[in-house]
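To fix ideas, we quote verbatim one protein's residues and fold tokens.
>
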Amino acid sequence: MTAGAATTGREAGVSSRGRISDLVRSFTVAARLGWALEANWTDPLLFFIYSVAKPLSSALILVFMLEVIGGPAGRSLRPFVVVGSALWTFVVSGISGLAWAILEDRERYRVLKYVYVSPSDFLVVLMGRGVARVAVGLAGVVITLLVGVTVLGVTFDLATVDWGLLAISTVFGLVSIVALGILMAGICIQTRQESWSYPEAFAGALFLITGAVFPLIVLPVVIQPIGLLMPLTWWIAGVRQSLFPGGVDSIGGPGSAFESIFGHAHPGTGEIALALLVTSAVVTLAALAVFRWSDRRAKQAGLYDQTSGS
């Protein structure tokens, strides 16, 4: 190797490390800014209480409805309802966090074009802005699960937890949620009036077909396969199966679309992990493709310089 080649290699290494350092710094600053904006510069404890009150009250309402309608027999469904409602708080926070970062900077603060032309990578800044809302959603998940176990009498045994499945579900579930948030951010770049309601409307549509609070088998047979294509369906099922093995299955069952497609009524641990991996990869690639296309179109049409007045 010549001296010139060695020097070029060292310069490339230094440049690569500098690039990574810049990305980390951009993400960190954006995350701190996102937290300050999300909390509106209020007291952290007060903001924490406010943030977990909504998901916790939603879970309590669902459990109360289950108690009144199902009676003693409905108590066996408490783990199913508590886990599903807790995880869905995380979904809504993740999807809306990235999309609202676009809307806030464009409509409220009118600085989106300045953020875009800054030296930082725009997608990294966007993810940093959204991480604050994701953290709030994660806190809501933990609090809701703790209340379910300590107050609502949900039986939980650490010795029976499938930690491997839980780790896989957590990692790829987070990837899927971030990907869906990027997808919604790309869509919100193109939209105009009433864009603020789009992320929650999108999350609400997914709520119906992913087995969050009721099994897919209660849906029409023609709709169930749509739920099977969603990574959130397998994520929720994986977390339920890992925390409460042998509990109510949200995907399969006698007469379900899963049984007609795969030939058996309930998915196994390996099937859940593999399906989550495949669907997460597909959704992530699709979300990045949509965001990049939306970004190019927004630059060509001058959308980053405009506000819709919504």
User: Anything to note?
Assistant: The longest helix spans residues 3-39. DSSP finds eleven helices and no strands in the chain.
